[in-house]
Amino acid sequence: MKIAVVDYGMGNLHSVLKSVQAAQKLAGTAAEIYLTDQPEAVFAADKIIFPGQGAMPDCMGALQQSGLGEAVSDGLKNKPFFGICVGAQLLFDHSEEGDTAGLGWFGGEVKRFAPNLHDAHGDKLKVPHMGWNTVRQTQAHPLFQDIAQDTRFYFVHSYYFAPSDPQIVLGTSEYPDEFACIVGRDNVFATQFHTEKSHDGGLLLLRNFLNWQP
């Protein structure tokens, strides 16, 4: 089995690669895991991990300029596919960040958190939303195996998913209002939080992805 971590120049790539390698030990699967910026290597993969970090206009521009767009689109159609952070936001129609068009795999917008947010105690919340936060699983999914409800994951983001179809929402968090932080359909699974920074919970998600046969 070949697992491609897509390198389009935008992301915490070596950290992602190391976390996938650590997850492979948990999974006990034989897999060739590689970081690649070559479209043919993405086409050749059996599963694809699509990370991203930074501003969405820069990420979308880098994806287009790299020539990887067609290989990523092929993976979305045909292979188990895991999007992380901006790599998940890119799957939507459009982002308010830089008025940027996405890949349109999921219908909906990526919206910025409102200014002047306050928590239940009246304390001001900072944007970006940064740090550990609880995730509530809203639908059963194979990638949630062995992950307890309300497990905490690590977030760094100023923008969040606003899907047009609520059926694709698999998990939510709150800041302070509820927002979608895990989405998926068929062979595609995507998280707003960083799996590679989320310790045991992130490793279990990646382990389950390596074992997943949608």
Your description of this structure?
The protein has six helices and 14 strands. The protein has 214 residues and is of the alpha/beta class. Helix 1 (13-27) packs across helix 6. The chain has an eight-stranded mixed sheet, sandwiched between helices. Strands 6-5-7-11 form a four-stranded mixed sheet, with helices on one face. The longest helix has 15 residues, at 13-27. The protein is globular.
Query: Which oligomerization state do the chains in this entry correspond to?
Result: single chain
Rg from C-alpha positions? 16 Å
Uncertain regions: pLDDT < 50 for 5+ in a row? Answer: none
Report how far apart the termini are.
15 Å
Order of helices and strands: EHEHEHHEHEEEEEEEEEEH
Strand content: 25-35%
Helix content: 25-40%
Number of strands: 14
Shape summary: globular
Overall pLDDT metric = 94
Number of helices: 6
Structural category: alpha/beta
Largest sheet: 8 strands, mixed
Query: Biggest sheet, strands in spatial order?
Result: 2-1-3-4-14-13-12-9
List the helices and strands and how they pair.
Layout: E1 2-6, H1 13-27, E2 32-36, H2 39-44, E3 47-50, H3 56-66, H4 69-78, E4 81-84, H5 86-89, E5 92-95, E6 100-101, E7 106-112, E8 129-134, E9 136-137, E10 152-157, E11 159-163, E12 169-174, E13 178-185, E14 188-191, H6 199-211
Parallel strand pairs: 1-2, 1-3, 3-4, 4-14, 5-7
Antiparallel strand pairs: 5-6, 7-11, 8-10, 9-12, 12-13, 13-14
Helix pairs in contact: 1-6
Quick gist of this model?
With 214 residues, the protein is an alpha/beta fold. The protein has six helices and 14 strands. A hairpin with a 4-residue loop joins strand 5 and strand 6.
